[in-house]
Specification:
562 residues, mainly beta, seven-stranded antiparallel β-sheet, 1 helix
């Protein structure tokens, strides 16, 4: 094994812009090395700027824009490589993609802390509150802002963004989304957005006055924190694509301007002791600006073990595929397929030799399946597909799904708490096990969905086991979930004896509930529940709802298949 101390390449702790340039030379040498290699960082804070970084055009699914990205650690093509820190912090400067793991095999990143010098979001505290008027306090040194023509803008390293993405209110005591809250956006060209005028009363004090008939949340309180969302979700911390046997271990992530990890077409992905936490000194109420771990069209095993995720601005875990809508049928074996959802643009759905299913978009049930003979990206919106044989059921409006990517999933020993939205979004046809985790989710802790008409996130499940977990006061924001456990694929049209999802087993869990709701489920064949314990709490006012709200569920039993 070859060991490389980064100081040999003059990559040193400290605020040095040249670190990024020297890192490129080091990684070029690693790519050319045929033997197993370790890159070793010493203790200290290493700064990485976008100035001398590699540039690539990347279509990153479920992010806001597909543009040229600057990359710090471009690991493209690396094999048998370990990057290891020792009390090492990487401090990134916007806008930059920290890690790009493309066409790699046996790559491990471990023992590092990640943060950004200037966060992509800002923060405020409510100081005065009326139904249509609020005064918020902003640390102008930490979060530089300007008000121009009654609109609020935030300045950062290489960005100047208006706060149109809106804000999320966080309870000052729990440092979690407020009870019965929801997202608020300002001055966006949508009917649901709040019109607002901003005015600086004095340095650090900003008055917000709502226009029209909108009012602030009735659950809002003076002293609560506001997460001010002004930077698009553009740069995840780790972008893993077309790689195999990737391990991310012993990592502490405080912030990035996107998801913590986004994986596409990856085989065997491990996140172990990968924490997303509030900064212990700066005490920001937010962490990453989107999801924690987001996996699209992966296979093999996804292992998420002993991780701690809190206060990110979207779901901790989301595992799914992508439905492409048949835009035009060219022949009985040829179609043009459209990527409909804006955040999926530019993502190829597969390659020749892989098996695709044709799915009725109303029932979301398979019509047929065939091997793909030819695939071509026409542009970011459309792709051409030719199947090896004539395909039954090709119809415009139906959707296609790559069937070769259905990972087994094990989520074990983790804590998920205080983030916006839900907990684990699980739509994989592999074996899915969620064991010995703690959930404090504002929405549904477990969401099993699938949608062929809006988000176009695919994945009819076959077997999901939830065991020995702790669900603590979940689903207190109705916009994000109807119950702690929710099964809600978008299809409402059923066929006799068949459902989109197959089997969900819920056993030996502890539910700490402030009301009666446990499960809301539809369009699943069988739910098995036994050995669960319910503990009543008075954490929130009860939200009306049934203990078991069921629609289109074929069987509920206490006799497991296993």
């Amino acid at each position: 094994m070859r060991q490389i101390q980064v100081k040999e390449f003059q990559i040193l702790p400290g605020d040095f812009r040249e670190n990024t340039l020297k890192l490129r030379k080091l990684l070029d040498e690693c790519r050319a090395c045929e033997e197993e290699t370790e890159i070793l960082f010493e203790e200290g804070v290493y700064h990485f700027y976008p100035d001398y970084a590699e540039e690539k055009l990347l279509y990153i699914s479920n992010h806001d824009e597909d543009t040229i990205k600057k990359i710090a650690f471009d690991l493209t093509g690396c094999r048998n490589l370990t990057l290891r820190g020792n009390k090492t912090e990487f401090r990134f400067h916007t806008d930059i993609l920290p890690f790009y793991i493309h066409s790699c095999e046996n790559v491990t990143v471990e023992g590092i802390t990640i943060d950004f010098q200037r966060t992509g979001y800002s923060e405020a505290v409510i100081r005065e509150l009326e139904p249509k008027r609020m005064v918020m306090e902003i640390n102008k040194e930490e979060y530089p802002y300007e008000i121009l023509h009654g609109r609020l803008f935030f300045r950062g390293e290489n960005f100047f963004c208006e706060m149109t993405h809106g804000c999320l209110e966080m309870d000052a005591e729990r440092m979690a989304p407020v009870y019965m809250g929801h997202d608020i956006s300002f001055n966006r060209p949508y009917s649901w957005s709040y019109g607002a005028v901003f005015k600086e009363l004095s340095e650090g004090l900003v008055e917000v006055t709502l226009m029209g008939d909108r009012e602030f949340l009735k659950t809002s309180k003076v002293g609560n924190h506001l997460i001010l969302r002004h930077h698009a979700r553009t740069h995840p911390a780790f972008y893993v694509i077309y790689s195999k046997n990737t391990v991310l271990r012993d990592i502490m992530l405080y912030h990035c301007t996107g998801m913590a990890v986004i994986a596409q077409f990856d085989e065997n992905l491990t996140m172990e002791r990968f924490d997303i936490r509030i900064h212990p000194v700066k005490k920001r109420v937010f962490t990453v600006t989107a999801d924690g771990f987001h996996c699209i069209y992966c296979k093999g095993q996804i292992l998420i073990k002993d991780c701690f995720l809190e206060n990110q601005l979207d779901d901790p875990v989301n595992i799914h595929g992508i439905y492409g809508r048949i835009h035009k049928v060219l022949s009985d074996s040829e179609v043009l397929v459209e990527l409909v959802e804006g955040m999926q643009k530019g993502v190829p759905l597969g390659k020749s030799g892989e098996t695709f299913g044709v799915i009725n978009n109303e029932t979301m049930l398979d019509v047929s399946a065939e091997v793909l003979a030819e695939h071509k990206m026409l542009n970011r919106d459309y792709q051409y597909m030719r199947f090896a044989k004539p395909v039954k059921g090709l119809q415009e409006g139906f959707v296609v799904e790559n069937k070769d990517y259905a990972p087994d999933v094990l989520v074990e020993g983790c804590t998920f708490q205080n983030n916006r939205a839900r907990g684990l979004l699980l739509t994989s046809a592999g074996e899915v096990i969620v064991r010995d985790n703690t959930f404090r989710s504002a929405g549904a802790a477990i969401l099993i969905e699938g949608d062929s008409n809006y988000w176009f996130e695919s994945g009819a499940t076959k077997s999901i086991l939830l065991e020995k977990n702790r669900f603590i006061d979940c689903a207190y924001v109705p916009d994000w979930g109807e119950a702690p456990i929710q099964v809600s694929p978008s299809a409402k049209k059923y066929e006799d004896g068949v459902r989109y999802h197959k089997y969900l087993e819920i056993r030996d869990n502890d539910f700490y509930c402030f009301d009666d709701r446990l499960v809301s489920a539809q369009n699943i064949e069988e739910i098995c529940m036994y050995g669960n314990r319910i503990h009543k709490t008075d954490s929130f006012e009860p939200i009306p709802g049934e203990k078991m709200k069921l629609e289109g569920v074929l069987r509920v039993t206490d006799q497991p298949h296993r």
